[in-house]
TrEMBL record:
Pfam family, one: Dynamin_N
Domain of life where this protein originates: Eukaryota
Keywords for the protein's UniProt record, in alphabetical order: Endocytosis, GTP-binding, Hydrolase, Microtubule, Motor protein, Nucleotide-binding
Membrane-spanning intervals of the chain: none
InterPro entries named among the record's database cross-references: Dynamin (IPR022812), Dynamin_GTPase (IPR001401), Dynamin_N (IPR045063), Dynamin_stalk (IPR000375), G_DYNAMIN_dom (IPR030381), GED (IPR003130), GED_dom (IPR020850), P-loop_NTPase (IPR027417)
Name the record gives this protein: dynamin GTPase
Species for this entry: Vulpes vulpes
Length: 749
């Protein structure tokens, strides 16, 4: 409220055709002694605020110093040297030249001979408070300033490089240099933006919302694009590969070759129940008599029952494929979102067709199963027959069922089926938290390592007698868990009966189960204790019946492996032919016709409000980018670049010690301005300062009376900073002066 400071600027915009497009930041001088309600650290606060502005690389620093003070003690030059050691952004400004004592002048300073700066000094003469009170305008003040430099014997030879107009030219040249320096990168950025939207804008250029031919063409193009996208997602494509998730075709592939075989094995293997059914069938066929031979009717009855069980997994695979097709359709229609009715109708028509094909596909799948049930071909070349079945041991089938896809692999422990990260959840709980390991599954063992470099092996678990079962997900965990256990009631790992492994998603669990299935580790489908005790003990198994059951079991095992192999091959082919290929053909040939018959074309092609707004914005941006590139080309041809002057020895700034001036006269300080480059001479391009003229340094003729008596002030120097030229701050040793008419507007840079 009184004499405190704030780094939040007070903004004033000056609009005029006679000012430069620059921003001036007028900074305060550094106060040495707190005045009024100023805090004790006011000097530190002001310094930090000044540094906040002048450290920016796009800021020119106008180091303003009164001519009637010691230049070596200038706070403005010292701070400028700290942030601009090369002197590329610092321009010295000398004020109060008309108030110097008689017999003294600042000629050596202005000629850059005494205490030199790389960009030199510019002298200015501002209005006095009396001039301001007398309504002396800026034009008259600039004429008076010009007259002062032309009439003063010490400055007349450099008058063309003195005064506020010349300072304006210097700053304007720096602005030009800065713009030219930044133009190449700016042009490249604009050209990149133009190229990125050019393809999209091409379709908007001749856009006529009510043109029926445009709507017809757009509808045809979008339906064709929808068909192409759908086919790419199903069949796969090398362009625009999605690296974040599996596409529809890849997911359907997993259904065919992982989920479907897994469901078959999970459904099939319940050894005790199967053997009990075989024994019941044999006994029922013999009836009251005791059979001497193994009845083949028992074999057919058991095989047919097992074949019928394949209907469940087969129909489930059809449902999974249908769901993926519908999801794929929804993803492909996202490109039609600009036309809501078209998007909605396309989804509805294709989904309805998929549902129609669902019934026919399921009928065909069931027909395939019924065909297998209708005739049991015991003359199949892969069927072992009764003679071989009686010779096989009861344990052989455990490693050679059709569910074990690993049987086609060479019997080597080095065959890797799968690798990946898993978390051992039950062991981690005992030790204070779950821990992840890198697991490697082969045809014979499951090993885990500390990390994926596979250097530090933690354990190797043989797969003999192992099975897998689901574990209920904990409400405290987001992980999905499955467990491995030994069928002979032995510990799986150290003292643990179960090895619980956790994945991030159910999809990962299913994938690991399918991989374990390939290695011969089957899902657990054991009977409950009640079933075993209540039914299995109701009959005795004599040695002859046991041999007959084992024979039938081996025959069923052999024949079911033939059936499973056939079904696993035919079901995906059936779904592919009746469902997937048919939907693709429908989209390519009939979708457009059904869209035309469903609704009026104008209704279908009614674009959303968001799309209309986006089209207008894209066209405006495209035009603006083209105009900007034209302007940049004009700037390159219509402007010149002035090189920076050579370095000078300005070490005097670093070594000088700030000493209090002999009088309380306040020193005005860095007026900071913005652009980067260097001052250009008002009349010539040469950066060098010309040698002094024939006139010697005679006592100056003051333009107005000598200096007024100084009066104390709280600030020892003034400074201005900005993205552009800074007007000199008020001089406390005489009435306050208005800043020169140098403009101040426009963005910083």
């Amino acid at each position: 409220m009184n004499k405190g400071i704030s780094s939040i600027p007070i903004n004033l915009r000056v609009y005029s055709p006679h000012v430069l497009n620059l921003t001036l930041i007028d900074l305060p001088g550094i106060t040495k002694v707190p005045v009024g309600d100023q805090p004790p650290d006011i000097e530190y606060q002001i310094r930090e605020m000044i540094m906040q502005f002048i450290t920016r690389e796009n800021c020119l620093i106008l180091a303003v110093t009164p001519a009637n003070t010691d230049l070596a003690n200038s706070d403005a030059l010292k701070l400028a040297k700290e942030v601009d050691p090369q002197g590329l952004r610092t321009i010295g400004v000398i004020t109060k030249l008309d108030l110097m004592d008689e017999g003294t002048d600042a000629r050596d300073v202005l000629e850059n001979k005494l205490l030199p700066l790389r960009r030199g000094y510019v002298g200015v003469v501002n209005r006095s408070q009396k001039d301001i009170d007398g309504k002396k305008d800026i034009k008259a003040a600039m004429l008076a300033e010009r007259k002062f430099f032309l009439s003063h014997p010490a400055y007349r030879h450099i008058a063309d490089r003195m005064g506020t107009p010349h300072l304006q030219k210097v700053l304007n040249q720096q602005l030009t240099n800065h713009i030219r320096d930044t133009l190449p990168n700016f042009r490249n950025k604009l050209q990149g933006q133009l190229l990125s939207i050019e393809h999209e804008v091409e379709g908007y250029k001749n856009f006529k919302p009510e043109d029926p031919t445009r709507k017809t063409k757009a509808l045809l193009q979008m339906v064709q694009q929808f068909a192409v996208d759908f086919e790419k997602r199903i069949e796969g494509s090398g362009d625009q590969v999605d690296t974040l998730e599996l596409s529809g075709g890849a997911k359907i592939n997993r259904i065919f070759h992982e989920r479907f075989p897994f469901e078959i094995v999970k459904m099939e293997f319940n050894e005790k129940e199967l053997r009990r059914e075989i024994s019941y069938a044999i006994k029922n066929i013999h009836g009251i008599r005791t059979g001497l031979f193994t009845p083949d009717m028992a074999f057919e009855a058991i095989v047919k029952k097992q074949i019928v069980k394949l209907k469940g997994p087969s129909l489930k695979s059809v449902d999974l494929v249908i769901q993926e097709l519908i999801n794929t359709v929804k993803k492909c229609t996202k490109k039609l979102a600009n036309f809501p009715r078209l998007c909605e109708e396309t989804e509805r028509i294709v989904a309805n067709h998929i549902r129609e094909r669902e019934g026919k596909t399921k009928d065909q799948v069931l027909l395939l199963i019924d065909i297998q049930v209708s005739y049991i071909n015991t003359n199949h070349e892969d069927f072992i027959g009764f003679a071989n079945a009686q010779q096989r041991s009861s344990q052989v089938h455990k490693k050679n069922t059709i569910g074990n896809q690993g049987t086609n692999l060479p019997p080597s422990r080095q065959i890797v089926i799968r690798k990946g990260w898993l978390t051992i959840s039950n062991i981690g709980i005992m030790k204070g938290g779950s821990k992840g390991y890198w697991f490697v599954l082969t045809a014979e063992s499951l090993s885990w390592y500390k990390d994926d470099e596979e250097k530090e092996k933690k354990y190797m678990l043989p797969l003999d007698n192992l099975k897998v079962r689901d574990v209920e997900k904990s409400f405290m965990s987001s992980k999905h868990i499955f467990a491995l256990f030994n069928t002979e009631q032995r510990n799986v790992y150290k003292d643990y009966r179960f090895l619980e492994l956790a994945c991030d998603s159910q999809e990962d669990v299913d994938s690991w189960k399918a991989s374990l299935l390939r290695a011969g580790v089957y899902p657990d489908k054991s009977l409950t204790e009640n079933d075993e005790n209540g039914q299995a003990e109701n009959f005795s198994m004599d040695p002859q019946l046991e041999r007959q059951v084992e024979t039938i079991r081996n025959l069923v095992d052999s024949y079911m492996s033939i059936i499973n192999k056939c079904i696993r091959d035919l079901i995906p082919k059936t779904i592919m032919h009746l469902m997937i290929n048919n939907v693709k053909d429908f989209i390519n040939s009939e979708l457009l016709a059904q869209l035309y018959s469903s609704e009026d074309q104008n209704t279908l092609m009614e674009e959303s409000a968001e799309q209309a707004q986006r089209r207008d914005e894209m066209l405006r941006m495209y035009q603006a980018l083209k105009e900007a590139l034209v302007i940049i080309g004009d700037i390159n041809t219509a402007t010149t670049f002035t090189p920076a002057p050579p370095p000078v020895d300005d070490s005097w700034i670093q070594h000088s010690r700030r000493s209090p001036p002999p009088s309380p006269t306040t020193q005005r300080r860095p007026t900071l301005s913005a652009p980067l480059p260097r001052p250009a001479s008002g009349r010539g391009p040469a950066p060098a300062i010309p040698s002094p003229g024939p006139h010697s340094g005679a006592p100056p003729v003051p333009f107005r009376p000598g200096p007024l008596p100084p009066f104390p002030s709280s600030s020892s120097s003034g400074s201005g900073s900005s993205d552009w030229f800074g007007a000199p701050p008020q001089v406390p040793s005489r009435p306050t002066r208005a800043p020169p008419s140098v403009p101040s507007q426009s963005p910083k840079f």
